[in-house]
Amino acid sequence: MQILEGEGVTKYFGGLAAVSKVDFHVDQGEIAGLIGPNGAGKTTLFNLISAALVPKPGTIRFKGEKITGLKPHKICRLGLARTFQEVKIFSNMTVLENVLLGSLFGCSTGMSSADASREAEELLEFVGLSAVRTTPAKDLTLVNQKRIEVARALATKPELLMLDELMAGLNPAEVAQAMELVTRIRDKGITIFMIEHVMKAIMSVCDRIMVLHHGEKIAEGTPQEIAISKKVVEVYLGE
Ligand SMILES: Nc1ncnc2c1ncn2[C@@H]1O[C@H](COP(=O)(O)OP(=O)(O)OP(=O)(O)O)[C@@H](O)[C@H]1O
Ligand SMILES: [Mg+2]
Predict the structure, then answer these.
(1) Which of 123, 142, 157 is the last residue of a domain?
(2) pTM over 0.90
(3) CATH number for 50
(4) What is the pLDDT of residues 142-163, one digit of tens each?
(5) CA 18 – ligand 1 centroid, Å
């Protein structure tokens, strides 16, 4: 079953087609990857899905329901959460408080603050941040700030989690941990749609990969199919 589908999704910035007539889908339960060179339109597509931007034209459906035109918080409460390429945390709040915001405001089910706190603590354990739960978010390293975003997104109880370059700027050991985290999230039954430049990671964790180039979808397939796609090799390495 397709949990997310887009049809003819397009976004112009002035004369630039950042995303152009893209048809895409994400299947329930999979880890889907989105790759493409810098400026290909990957983040713009995520912004269109999460309603930070509105496609024109184009339609996006989540769990069969049209979400184009809904406000971002409504989409979040339907069960679609995301993280950001440039981390967007509340710097002066503690790690725990950042995650609590997800539980208390992002989630459709009303929750008591005691339940929200318990859940936030469990999520911090899950992402490996329990030891720094009372530290101001700004004092954490980049890798840990990215984990705050993951925990905050998980606190909204998503069915689909979109990750925009979770692994950028991480060293190889941190990338390995991030890959393991992504797999554990999927094992909780949460579908993943991830943008990534770290090829080793994307090739080993994704079930299926879509490739954007100059705003257009140029390829789609299993990691094995993408690795040998002439079109994909050309856009990454030149002809
Ligand atoms: N708010 C905006 N206003 C104008 N142009 C924009 C805006 N956001 C993105 N763009 C342009 O749209 C194109 C696609 O950008 P986007 O950020 O989606 O690429 P990306 O694939 O995420 O790249 P990267 O891998 O570098 O993150 C780029 O040419 C970018 O300069
Ligand atoms: Mg981007």
Answers:
(1) 157
(2) yes
(3) 3.40.50.300
(4) 999 999 999 999 999 999 999 9
(5) 7
